[in-house]
């Protein structure tokens, strides 16, 4: 924040303006007391205008700022009032980091595959067996690559455990509800954006999960964009998906921090010059972000 004092000439002009304004009102008040009723009405009219005009101007400036998304003197964001702003009124992040990139599953949402299968009536033993053929298999990444149809992916699961053919086909004919929302996510994103950070997502994610879990994925509209792997047919931890995000959003690796619950994905980001945090819980990530100078 700029600590320079207001120039002396500006302070003198401000004081002079106040003195003139107060003097005019005192003179008008005297005239109102000793003059005609019209003078009294003029005095009260001026007092009312003194209150009403600034309020109307404040509302106008606030409305313009709300519509354009720009920080203004009337902005209702007290948390950023003592922060640096650019020429458009946007908050300038403190420290080195200017972009926060999030993984989605088990970071901004819950990948609730066990509950998903329980709701279909399977016990823990069967869930473990299904998992080996599906979410814990190498074939699960085919969901995220977006190269195969849902039937083709399920066929691969069946190859992993042919005895479960009917169960697997029934369980994964759609995966609506396999991703569930976290209430903290949208406030977290908004807080970072208010503090001036660009907020992106980078996730191995399938079309089926996106379309089948709209409530959980509503936070996407609050971000500045990102990559869901099925759209570009590249997945983490391959370097291609990180480079694609850099190019698409003009990222500077050293000014970017990535938050993911999988260590190998964070290692890949760090190898490309990014900062990285392995997600365990919100408080731990917030503390590590603060260690990198990310304040929100």
From TrEMBL:
Question: What positions belong to coiled-coil segments?
Answer: none
InterPro entries, from UniProt?
HAD-like_sf (IPR036412), HAD-SF_hydro_IA (IPR006439), HAD_sf (IPR023214), PGP-like_dom2 (IPR023198)
Membrane-spanning segments: 12-36, 42-64
Which GO molecular function annotations are given, in alphabetical order?
Answer: hydrolase activity
Keywords, sorted A to Z? Hydrolase, Membrane, Transmembrane, Transmembrane helix
Tell me the SUPFAM superfamilies matching this sequence: HAD-like
Q: Which Pfam families match?
A: Hydrolase
Q: Which PANTHER family match?
A: ALPHA-D-GLUCOSE 1-PHOSPHATE PHOSPHATASE (PTHR43611), FLAVIN MONONUCLEOTIDE HYDROLASE 1, CHLOROPLATIC (PTHR43611:SF3)
Write down what this protein is called. HAD family hydrolase
Q: Which organism is it from?
A: Butyrivibrio hungatei
């Amino acid at each position: 924040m700029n600590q320079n004092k207001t120039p002396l000439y500006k302070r003198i002009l401000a004081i002079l303006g106040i003195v003139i304004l107060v003097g005019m009102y005192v003179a008008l008040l005297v005239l109102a007391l000793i003059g005609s009723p019209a003078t009294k009405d003029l005095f009260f009219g001026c007092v009312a205008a003194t209150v009403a005009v600034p309020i109307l101007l404040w509302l106008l400036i606030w409305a313009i700022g709300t519509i354009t998304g720009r920080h203004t003197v009337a902005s209702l964001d007290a948390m950023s009032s003592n922060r640096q702003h650019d020429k458009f009124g946007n908050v300038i992040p403190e420290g080195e980091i200017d972009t926060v990139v999030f993984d989605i599953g088990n970071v901004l949402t819950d990948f609730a595959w066990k509950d998903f299968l329980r709701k279909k009536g399977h016990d823990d033993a069967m869930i473990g067996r299904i998992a080996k053929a599906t979410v814990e298999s190498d074939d699960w990444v085919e969901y995220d690559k977006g190269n195969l149809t849902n039937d083709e992916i399920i066929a691969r699961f069946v190859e992993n455990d042919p005895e479960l053919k009917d169960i697997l086909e029934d369980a994964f004919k759609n995966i609506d509800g396999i991703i569930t929302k976290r209430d903290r996510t949208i406030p977290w994103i908004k807080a970072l954006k208010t503090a001036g950070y660009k907020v992106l997502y980078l996730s191995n994610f399938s079309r089926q999960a996106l379309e089948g879990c709209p409530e959980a994925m509503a936070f996407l509209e609050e971000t500045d964009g990102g990559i869901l792997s099925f759209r570009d047919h590249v997945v983490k931890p391959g370097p291609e998906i990180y480079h694609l995000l850099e190019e698409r959003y003009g990222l500077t690796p050293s000014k970017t921090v990535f938050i993911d619950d999988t260590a190998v994905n964070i290692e890949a980001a760090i190898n490309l010059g990014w900062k990285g945090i392995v997600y365990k819980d919100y408080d731990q990530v917030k503390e590590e972000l603060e260690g990198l100078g990310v304040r929100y």
